[in-house]
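Example 4.3 (complexes with small molecules)
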Amino acid sequence: MIQHLKNQSLMDKEIQSIIIPVEKVAHVQLANPLEHALLVLIKSGYTAIPVLDPTFKLHGLISKSLILDSLLGLEQIEVERLAGLKVEDVMQPSLPTIHKEETFAKALTLSINHPFICVLDDDGSFLGIIIRSSILKLISKYMHQ
Ligand code: 4BW
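Answer. The structure with 4BW bound is encoded below.
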């Protein structure tokens, strides 16, 4: 199968065709109240989403589990903590990124451990994300050709 995929040059392809552009990516800003991030996560249905700044630079990732962890008291969830926290206090600052002109092979490797990968421009601006399901869909398409 790998030989087949290589013959089809899938692995050498750039990843532009499967990028979800920034305007379609649910995201929050560094300075947003944590409660806002929780609402975006609940309403969008996603587990985790990117954190950007006002100039669309990527700063990290916020997830339902990071938020719940931040509310964990000794014996109970302390929901009142939500009011005093911002996204930047709780976000995970490291997350996988890929340059828009890198190959599908790199995106595939990163997707083994990450459900989505952030795509960056030459100047580090956030362009969008590549999601694991798009990667699997493309491989499936090539396999069935
Ligand atoms: O709202 C949803 N619509 C659809 N069609 N599928 C969904 C939705 N929410 C979840 N799913 C499915 C997808 O198959 O569950 C998978 C895991 O979701 P996640 O991780 O844990 O919220 C989804 O897999 P995926 O499409 O490969 O997406 C992988 C991850 O990428 C998601 C989420 O963290 C992120 N993501 C996907 N689309 C996004 C997004 N983040 C922000 N904006 C988007 N538009």
